[in-house]
Amino acid sequence: MTPVTTQAAADHRPQTGSALGRFFSLENRYLPPLLITTILLVGQFGFGLLESFSRTLLAIGTAILLEMVLGRWFYGKVPNLASAYITGISVGILDRSPEFWPYALTSALAITSKYVLRWRGRHLWNPSNFAICAMLLLAPEYVATLSIQWGNTLWPMMIVWVLGALIVYRVRRFHITATYVVSFVVLSALRSAITGHPFLAEVAPITGPMYQLFIFFMITDPKTTVTPKWGQCVVAVVVAVVESVLRLAQNVDAAFYALTIVGPAALVIDIWWKTRKQARVRT
């Protein structure tokens, strides 16, 4: 049998595994968009999560349109738009402003950063995290971040956590989420001892919708995480530590700033180390 025939036979082989298993496979790039849409719907219909649907649609539309334009401009093709959808919907959920333009501008900054802020072929910041921090610094009088919680109702949090945990497990990023969550809880106890605040008050933010986006999308972003699994866990711990320090300094957006500081620095070190290792092999 020739190689061509063998390949053809392989292509026509029936797929193995259940439909559910294939749906939750690494190849299904629409799992993260499904999760973030679930967060939006549960939060909006349960607690009025969004500033408005129109603002969120503006953020999504801007992200998708700019991704198409810049992808075509830089690489000659339109990339898969799932990432742009996640970026836009994250901006729509996390941004708080009475104006419309911050939603469009935040999405534009996020997508543009992927193409401009690069080093050795990789963008260094999670797009939505970078853009939100930039807007908080540049236009604090117009932009704030989501701060509501799920309230005292357990079911919304359970839906999101179960679905989110399953998805990040299937895409091999659960260890990052778990490491960060454990670190956050431990450091919450430490902050409680330092400040005298109740432990539950310190740990409560991680149960809110803002942190669902952070732990399932931002800190686990495959494009902006370091390569080794142990390194990913170390970065998650360091992010939690920096966030805790910022929280002690009364910074309410501590998680975003911590990832903005730690993530790119870790990625630069990872890229530099791999480049150096490859150079040694060649010599």
Strand order of the largest sheet: 1-4
Low-confidence stretches: 1-16
Total helices: the number is 13
Range of strand content? under 5%
> How many beta-strand elements?
4
Keywords, separated by commas or semicolons:
two-stranded antiparallel sheet; 283 residues; two-stranded antiparallel ribbon; mainly alpha; 70% helix; 13 helices; 2 domains; globular
Question: What features would you describe in this structure?
Answer:
The protein is mainly alpha-helical. The chain folds into 2 domains: 50-145, no CATH class; 151-283, no CATH class. The protein contains 13 helices and 4 strands. It has helices at 3-11, 19-23, 31-47, 53-75, 82-94, 101-116, 127-138, 155-170, 174-195, 199-203, 209-218, 229-248, 254-282, and strands spanning 95-96, 118-119, 122-123, 144-145. Strands 1-4 form a two-stranded antiparallel ribbon. The protein has a two-stranded antiparallel ribbon with strand order 2-3. Strand 2 (118-119) and strand 3 form a beta hairpin. Helix 4 packs antiparallel against helix 5 (82-94) and helix 9 (174-195) runs parallel beside helix 12 (229-248). The longest helix is centred in the last third of the chain and has 29 residues, at 254-282. The model is unreliable at 1-16 (pLDDT under 50).
